[in-house]
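Bumping with the actual sequence this time:
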Amino acid sequence: AAAQVASISTPPQGSVWNTMASVIAGQARESANMRMVVQPYGGNAQMMQSVNEGLAEFSLNDVNDVISAFQGSGEYDAAMPNLRVVARINPFPVGLYVKESSGMKAVAELKGKSVPSGWDAFPIARSHISAILAAGGLTWDDVRQVPVPELIRGSDDMASGRVDSAFFAVGGPKVAEVDASVGGVRFLTVEANDDTLAKIRQVRPAFYFSQVAPAPPRVGVKEPMAFVTWDNILVAGTHVSDAQVETLLTVLFDEAEAIGTAYPPLRALDLASAYKEYPGLEYHPAAAAFFKARGVELTPVE
C-alpha cells in the first residue's frame, strides 16, 4: 500500500473537505509512509466522478451527495456505481445565520425575509437550505429568494445587507469573520421533532438533527440548539486495493488523537460510530473487514 500513490479528491483549497483531507493525507504519509496526495477539483460532481472513474482513490463528501451520485439523482445526471463507503468521519451541522441586530432567533421568523438562493457554484446548498427551511416550518415560497453563487459570497452579501440570512456550517471561519464585522451573528433555531425529521428526510435521506452546545469556535451558537446535520464520509472507488483501504483506516483510528489535534473538527473521529449504514450505499469490502476485525458492528439506519 505504501508503494502505491493514492489521491484524495476534494473541492478547492480553503474548503473544509480540502483542509480535512490535507490533515489526513499528512498523517498517512508520516505514520504509514503512504504516498498520499490531495487533488482539488472544481466541485462535488467532479470529485465524485474522479473516484468513480479511477482517477482518484478516495474522497471526502456529504453522505447525501454520495447517495445522489451513486444513484444518479438530484444534481447528477448519471449513476456512479463504483463509489464505496470507507468510514463515517464526523457529523456536520449546518444552519442559516443572521445579524444579531436583526432580532431574529428562529428560522420561522424568516417568513417574508430574504434567503440566499441559486447557488450555481455550490448546488448542494439548495437541498441543505430546503431542509433547514422545512425544519422551521417554511418553504422557498415563504421567503424572498436572493441569488448568490457560493458560500463565501453568500455570507458577504448578508454582511453587506443584500440578503437577510446566510448559510454556513457551524464553526466555519467565515462565520467568525462576519461576526466580527457586523457586531455579532446568531444561528437560527429549528424545530427538531418527528414531523420535521420526516420533512428533512424527504429532501435528503441521510439528514438528521444533532444538538450543538455553545463553544468558542462555534460562533453564533448562543445556547444549546438543534441543527440539521449530515455525516461527512470517506469514500473509495471499487478499484482501490484492500491494502490501501486497510492502511488508511488504521491511520485514521490509531492516529485519531494526532489528527484531531491538527484539525479540531476531526476530534469527532470515533471508531465505535464510524461503521454506519446509509440508505442505498455499500461499504468497500476491506472497510467492512477492518471494522469486523476491530469488533465494531454496523450501526443500522435510524
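The C-alpha cells above came from a reply further down the thread. The longest strand covers residues 83-99.
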